[in-house]
Amino acid sequence: xxxxxRIPPREFETLVEEALAAVPERFRRYLENVVVVVExxxxxxxxxxTDTPDDHELFGxxxxxxxxxxxxxVSDLPAQIAVFRGPILRSCATRGEAVxxxxxxxVHELGHLLGLGDEEMPY
Length: 123
Hints:
The chain is of the alpha+beta class. It is about 40% helix and about 15% strand. The chain is built from 5 helices and 3 strands; from the N terminus they run ααβαββαα. The two termini are about 25 Å apart.
């Protein structure tokens, strides 16, 4: 059993890429103008934006306008999904748990991209 904390940054990024590749095509098309990044830790602004208490872990965030609310102007910056490596690795005991959490985080943030609130998520 491999400890999640031993997943190096590049491998973590690969796991995020694999989670994105596993998104069904009918949803993947919404990711065309979305930047997906891996960040080590969320910022104070991320905690404020999501109303996440400081003593809880934040695994990811969607930054930007939901897909169906975007203006179609050239000046619009692309939306962004950030997946936070540190919180996921601290919260998962094994590599398998981390892989599942990465996948769940990507799907959750994709839900926000599509305009769903936390209470509307299937999990």
